[in-house]
Amino acid sequence: MRHLTVYLFILLGFTLNGYAQKKHFYLTAKMNSMFILDDGSTSAFWGYGLYNPSNPMNGAARIPGPTIEVNHGDSVHIHFFNNSPESHTIHLHGLDVNQVNDGVPATSFMIPQHDSVTYKFLANHTGTFLYHCHVNTSLHLAMGMYGMVTVTDTNNIMYENGPRFTKSYNLLASDGMRSWWDNPISPGPFHLYEADYFMINGQAGSQLTEGQAIKVNPDDTVMIRLANIGYSLTKFIFPEGSNPIAYMSDGRKLPTLLESDTILIYPGERYSIILRPIEDIEDFITISYHHMFNYTDIGMNTYPISIDFFNKISENIDRPSLIVYPNPASSQITVNTPLPANITIVDVFGRIVLQTFLIEGANIVNIQNIANGSYLIYHDSGIAAKLEICK
Ligand SMILES: [Cu+2]
User: Fold this and answer.
1) Are strands 233-237 and 262-265 parallel, antiparallel or unpaired?
2) Are 31 and 86 in contact (CB under 8 A)?
3) How far is the CA of 122 from the centre of ligand 1 (A)?
4) Separation of 265 CA from ligand 1 center, angstroms?
5) Distance (Å, rounded) from C-alpha 79 to C-alpha 96?
């Protein structure tokens, strides 16, 4: 009977786990690849690509390597085939893997030319991770051997009891040194690496076009996975009113939410943010790249973002503003509204903490029962304001 109970628990566990399954990826490494730079010229690089398992020699590489997208609970198998003269590995950066699957040559093994291996791991944490080659890392990574790993909950929840999102985007920052790309045979010494080409998702400058814009429609809750696999410190600066909130870093929930329009990301770090916009925006996220020793500004990219926050009613009114004071507030606020309507106070998790009807003009709203923290006040007409509660 006890055995049956254990068996039932295991069975139940698998059922509750939902859609967990085996996911297979076929990744190759290539060294004689070419890609197009922002100025229209081409450059050599080394990188990862997908191959068809029926013909491992056919894969083509790209910068960054293909994103390994899996669901929480999946058992992930990466079948790696090295189609290049140098030895390589796949190091699963930030993922809980055992030593044999870690891709660090000193503690596991390298994959020589035309050899293959299957790296395996269980995607037991949602979040944003990276992978890169760990052979002569300074050179192989700078040559382009990296990519992103995303682990997503099937219900689009960031983590257990975390916020829900409806849409997500990935922004992977990286850099390169053109003289190394042109002549990878004698790049050293490694400390002379000076990045002079800066990318987001393998593209730079004018290659980052409107077509790739982050688009937020009125019903969207957008998550953005930010990561840096370059050798520079990156600074992501969001337009005012887009209201990014970082909930996770390095594949784990942050102990304190980070609410800032500027997010600093050091090499190897990742942040998962959700946008809680309070206005319409047609602008850019600015990504600046800084030297790791002296923090000088060495590069910049802009990534288009388009937020359609206002609902239909608001299109007919003359974009009035919602005035809230005092702010920060402790026990009550005055909300000055141009139109009679409902207001909804929402916390950073998107949970409604108060909803009340307001008349035109000044209204006093009691907030005594709301805990300290940051909130957004949405007005039915489509306007909104930030509110800090501090008792
Ligand atoms: Cu390598």
Assistant:
1) antiparallel
2) yes
3) 24
4) 24
5) 18
| Residue 34 to residue 29: CA distance in whole angstroms | 13
> How many angstroms is it from 298 CA to the middle of ligand 1?
26
Sign of CA dihedral 244, 250, 256, 262: negative
Distance CA 39, CA 44 (A): 15
C-alpha 139 to ligand 1 mean position (Å): 8
Nearest to 261 by CA among 279, 274, 243: 243
CA–CA gap between residue 97 and residue 100 (Å, rounded) = 8
Domains defined along the chain, listed by start: 2-152 (2.60.40.420), 167-307 (2.60.40.420), 313-389 (2.60.40.3080)
- With bands split at pLDDT 50, 70 and 90, how would you rate the model's confidence at 102? confident
Distance 287 CA to ligand 1 centre (A): 27
| Residues sharing a CB contact under 8 Å with residue 95, sequence separation 6 or more, in sequence order | 121, 123, 129, 149, 251
d(CA 66, CA 171): 13
What is the Å distance from ligand 1's center to 239 Cα? 37
Cα 175 to averaged position of ligand 1 atoms, centre (Å) = 16
pLDDT at residue 10 greater than cutoff 70: no
DSSP-derived letter for residue 101 is: G
Provide the residue count of the chain. 391
pLDDT at position 311 is 56
* Distance from residue 143's CA to the centre of ligand 1 (Å): 9
In this structure, what token pair is assigned to residue 277? 């916009």
The encoded tokens of residue 161 equal 């009891």
Q: Which ranges constitute the DSSP H helices of the chain?
A: 2-16, 137-142, 178-182
Distance between Cα 129 and ligand 1 center (Å) = 18
Report the separation in Å between the CA atom of 7 and the middle of ligand 1, taken as the mean of its atom positions: 44
Give the mean pLDDT of the chain: 89
Least confident of 69-83, 111-125, 326-340: 326-340
* Ligand 1 centroid – CA 184 distance (Å): 12
> 206 alpha carbon to ligand 1 midpoint, in Å?
29
Going by C-alpha positions, the residue among 53, 81, 79, 50 that lies closest to residue 67 is 50
Q: Separation of 299 CA from ligand 1 center, angstroms? A: 26
